[in-house]
Amino acid sequence: MKIKDYISKLETRPKGLLFAAGIILNCLIGYSDYRMGKYLGFEAFYLLPVSMASWFIGRKSGIIMAVISAGVLGVAEMFEHANDEIWSTEAHIVVFGVFAYIISGTKLALQEVSKGKTILSSLLESAGEGIYGIDIKGDHTMVNRAAVQMLGYEVSELIGRHSHSIWHHTRADGTPYPQEQCRIYATLRDGVVKHITDEVFWRKDGSPFPVNYTVAPIWEEGKISGAVIVFRDITEARRAEEALRVSEARYKALYCDNPTMIFTLDTRGTILSVNPFAATQLGYETAELEGKQVSEVVHEEDRTALTEQLGTCLENPGRIYRNKFRKVRKDGTTLWVEETAQSVCDLNGALNVLVVCQDITARKQAEERLIKTMADLARSNKDLEQFAYAVSHDLQAPLRSMSGFAQLLTENYRGKLDADADKHLDFIVAGAKRMQRMIEDILAYSRIGTRAGELTVLNCEAVLNQAIANLHAAIEENGAVVTHGPLPVVKADQSQLVSLLQNLIGNALKFNAGRPQVHVSAVKQAGEWVFSVRDNGIGIGIDPAQFDRIFMLFQRLHTQEEFQGTGVGLAICKKIVERHGGRIWVESGPEKGTTFYFSLPAGGETEQR
Asked: pTM surpassing 0.85?
């Protein structure tokens, strides 16, 4: 049954019942939302004057205006009907229906406004920026949560209180900030929106924090009634800017101002970037090198090695590779560089190769000169050793002849000539013998390099025993005591190691004022064995100023009358030790005796016994 049919039936009912029905209908419509219009459908038009149809058609947009206009038009049209019929059944229902919809629409409009306020409040409270409002006098009218958190106040401590005197009273340097100079209050005067950077607000605890803020006026009826301020704490931004500044300074120092050549290459060897120092060293402008193949600035003989290194870097990200190449300057000259290369990813994740080059041209030239000098020296030493050997060997025959005839003269004519003649013959014999010993020592010295034996694993205790056996007669003659501690196994030339120990122990036997006491020992230090040959020596010891001199060829500290010798023994010791990769030195002092030290490399096969 349609609504108009219900109305027809109601018209036959008593007016009291109709009045009650109108109230019920009024209540039903009043407490339903605007979507009830869809339920009533267009047949509801039969209940209302035609002029009210616009209300139903337009009620989805502009609820308040549609409801009010429909109500006014409906009431006005009812009064145009016959006066005695104003409380007819139709009119009664229409009036109550209209006002029920007015109430319902108003209620809905208020709900929408309340909903809008809730959304606005949520936005203000969830905003990360501080937001507050002030009236025309500068007193707080509202403050959001972010603002009170940054300022350190409660909302109740700010609402109604003057803003400038609370947290904007002083500049960053501590000087006063008068209100008349404050740009927030300037907006209250001129109505201009202002965006302010680099000012400070002050917290409740008295500490400042840097802010950027925007202030906008509030207009009411053509007049400024207040302002809204939105501010942001820029402390972290300041720190980020400082970090960026430091980073840029480091970049400038490490890249732009670095006195080394730095290149960035792509996977094809194209130069993506180059620092100014590299460009200057190669005689180019930076822009000339960027985009060029790196092989174009590398010597053609080194390009294959460069390509191999580039490929290896790309295959092994993170690993560092070093090599030496020749770079070619723009003018065609070359320079040697020591290059360090490593593959890295750029900000976009692309794989590049970072190359750092150090100019080693001067060092390379010095190395080449040193190599040539060492080769020349080695050749000279070899020639000298061969010459010394040949001369010494050739001198022995005539020297033996001279010595033999001098001895014959001494034996056959002693006492037959005068005393001076006998003395001269003794000098000739002694000189010949001394010359013989010197030649033998020179031969021994030259043979260290020319007739060196293989380095083999030796038990140093057995080597020492052989040296002591060779010195048996001298030890017995001097009543000497030779002892030793645990000695290691080393890799050495046996005959030369025997000669080394024999010379050092022989020196201890010779240069001694009393009964010689000699002790041989060894300790392991920093990858080498340090041997010591200690004696009780002569009283005065060795002058420290002579420590280096005594290892030089033919250098002696005593005369033949004091101690016999050729001055070659310690030179032989030094040459043997250096041939084995070690060093030799001496320590001595009055009444302390003398200790000779020498070192030999400690290999994996060495051990102490």
From this structure: no
Q: Helices 89-126 and 3-11 meet at what angle, rounded to 10?
A: 130
Residue 50 burial class via C-beta count within 10 angstroms: exposed 0-12, middle 13-18, buried 19 and up? exposed
Residue at which a domain ends, from 359, 388, 408 = 359
pLDDT at residue 309, rounded to an integer: 87
For residue 425, the SS3 value is: helix
Burial 372-389 (b: 16+ CB within 10 A, else e): eeeeeeeeeeeeebeebb
**Do residues 235 and 265 both lie within one domain?**
no
Residues near 368 by beta carbon (within 8 Å), at least 6 away in sequence = none
Beta bridge pairs of residue 593: 589
Q: What kind and span of H or E run contains 60?
A: none
Averaged pLDDT score across all residues of the chain: 75
Bridge partners of 127, per DSSP, are none
Q: What percent of the chain has pLDDT over 90?
A: 23
Q: Which domain holds residue 119?
A: 3-123
Give the number of C-alpha atoms closer than 13 A to the C-alpha of residue 553, restricted to the C-beta side. Answer: 11
Beta strands across the sheet bearing 334-345? 271-274, 261-265, 351-359, 334-345, 320-328
How far lies 99's CA from each of 105, 337, 577, in Å?
A: 10, 97, 123
How big is the CA angle at 537 (ends 534 and 540), to the nearest 5 degrees?
A: 130
Which value, to the nearest 10 degrees, does the dihedral of the CA atoms of residues 177, 181, 187, 189 take? 130
The alpha carbon torsion through 175, 178, 184, 188 (nearest 10 deg) reads: -170
C-alpha to C-alpha distance for 281 and 165, rounded to whole angstroms: 63
pLDDT computed for residue 552 by the predictor: 66
Q: With a cut of 50, say whether residue 151 has pLDDT above it.
A: yes
Query: Do 494 and 603 fall into the same domain?
Result: yes
pLDDT at 20 over 80: no
Question: Which among 526, 536, 528, 532 is positioned nearest to 464, based on CA atoms?
Answer: 532
User: Is the pLDDT reported for residue 63 higher than 80?
Assistant: no
Does residue 444 sit within a domain?
no
Q: Which residues have C-beta within 8 Å of that of residue 552, sequence separation ≥ 6?
A: 571
pLDDT at 607: 42
User: What pLDDT does residue 493 have?
Assistant: 86
Please report the pLDDT score of residue 252 as a whole number: 74
Which pair of tokens denotes residue 466? 């052989």
| Structural domains counted in the chain | 5
Is residue 445 one of the residues assigned to a domain? no
Cα separation, 570 vs 563, in Å, equals 15
Q: Pick from 99, 123, 147: which residue ends a domain?
A: 123
Short-list 31, 180, 3, CA closest to 93: 3
Q: What is the mean pLDDT of the segment spanning 509-513?
A: 73
Average pLDDT over residues 171-189: 91
- Residue percentage of the chain with pLDDT more than 70: 67
Q: Which tokens sit at 40? A: 């009533």
Banded pLDDT at 242 (limits 50, 70, 90): confident
Q: Is residue 606 within 8 Å of 489, Cβ to Cβ?
A: yes
Report helix, strand or coil for 395.
Answer: helix
In a domain, residue 249? The reply is no
The CA distance from 56 to 46, in Å, is 13
DSSP class of residue 49?
A: -
Q: What share of the chain is helix, strand, coil (3-state, %, to 5)?
A: 55, 20, 25
Question: Is residue 404 domain-shared with residue 511, that is, in the same domain?
Answer: no
CATH number for the domain harbouring residue 527 = 3.30.565.10
Span 156-162, mean pLDDT?
92
